[in-house]
């Protein structure tokens, strides 16, 4: 499937067949996330893979929508807040990989780079934005493989962390249920393109 087709065919799927998603395909979804871009190449995304009926049922206590836990596969998508500590290391890797050649960053001393200082909530939002990019890579790859998914942001982060026994370094960003679609919804209404552009200068 071409990328354009995957973008056009992707839907938020809320009815899934019970068929399990093979481990090989789970690996392909994780690979799509792994290849996503991120600021300073921090790659802060971390995933808890939930497949067992017992754990999916437990997650139901933290998620108001039952279709989420009825999916055969759930990715709990998190930002690793401690990934900011590796900013200097990631910058060195980028420099050594030639990412800055021909730009004003080419002569930067990457070994001493510590990144900009951010307040805790700003840092959390920044890392969550990076996780969101990886999750969309997964959603598009899922569509490419004939799977459905649905971004879910309405849940109790506190309960999710308790159920999964996650430490404070992991901030839960999105829950992504994945499975074979048991519905074929039409394309959702979209604003016209001309309404998206504020200015062309």
Largest sheet: 4 strands, antiparallel
Number of helices: 7
**Major sheet: order of its strands?**
1-2-4-3
User: Given the C-alpha coordinates, what overall shape results?
Assistant: globular
The residue fraction in helices comes out at 25-40%
Radius of gyration: 19 Å
Mean pLDDT: 95
Portion in strands = 5-15%
What is the number of strand segments? Answer: 4
End-to-end Cα distance: 35 Å
Which ranges are low-confidence, i.e. pLDDT below 50, for 5 or more consecutive residues? Answer: none
Plain-language structure description:
The protein is of the alpha+beta class. The chain is 37% helix and 13% strand. It is built from seven helices and four strands. It has a four-stranded antiparallel sheet with strand order 1-2-4-3. α1 packs across α6 and α2 packs across α6 (120-144). The two termini are 35 Å apart.
Helices, strands, pairings?
Elements: H1 3-9, H2 23-34, E1 45-50, H3 53-59, H4 66-70, E2 73-80, H5 87-96, H6 120-144, E3 148-149, H7 157-164, E4 170-179
Antiparallel strand pairs: 1-2, 2-4, 3-4
């Amino acid at each position: 499937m071409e990328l354009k087709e995957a973008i056009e065919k992707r839907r938020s799927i809320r009815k899934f067949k019970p068929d399990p998603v093979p481990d090989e395909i789970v690996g392909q979804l994780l690979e799509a996330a792994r290849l996503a871009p991120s600021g300073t190449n921090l790659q802060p995304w971390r995933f808890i893979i939930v497949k067992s009926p017992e754990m999916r049922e437990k997650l139901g206590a933290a998620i108001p929508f039952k279709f989420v836990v009825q999916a055969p596969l759930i990715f709990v998508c998190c930002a690793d807040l401690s990934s900011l500590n590796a900013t200097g290391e990631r910058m060195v890797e980028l420099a050594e990989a030639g990412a800055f050649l021909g730009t004003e960053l080419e002569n930067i001393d990457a070994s001493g780079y510590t990144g900009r200082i951010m307040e805790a909530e700003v840092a959390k939002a920044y890392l969550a934005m990076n996780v969101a990019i990886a999750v969309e890579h997964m959603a598009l790859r899922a569509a490419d493989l004939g799977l459905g998914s649905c971004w879910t942001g309405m849940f109790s982060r506190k309960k999710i962390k308790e159920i999964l026994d996650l430490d404070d370094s992991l901030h839960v960003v999105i829950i992504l249920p994945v499975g074979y679609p048991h519905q074929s919804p039409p394309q959702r209404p979209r604003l016209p393109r001309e309404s998206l552009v504020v200015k062309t200068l």
